[in-house]
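Reopening this one. Same input as before:
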Amino acid sequence: DLDVLVRELSDLLGDSAGPGDGRITLEIETAAVQVATARAISIALWLTEAITNAYNHAFPEGRRGTIRVTLRHAPGAQVELEVLDDGIGMPSGRGRRTRPPHPQATRLGSR
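Same output, byte for byte:
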């Protein structure tokens, strides 16, 4: 169950990577989704990187904020996994990818 993996991994990352002082809130919303184990491993790696980056870079110098993890069904038997934060954003002069490096990084086929 991908929804269980997303919720439990997100919580564990919040406990280990978060500052532990309550200034960063982690919100998790998941829909029931099933995927193959091999795909779940790739998703877990991507999710770990995305959440860890948000904790490490989005809220410098004691800034407060929220990280939101959402797993939802999308049109066309697809699933979306999204990690968003309301932190400081990218430094000026640095480009931001408009698409993930691989189309399945955030949009996954589901059955």
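So the earlier flakiness isn't reproducible anymore. For the record, The two ends are 12 Å apart (CA to CA).
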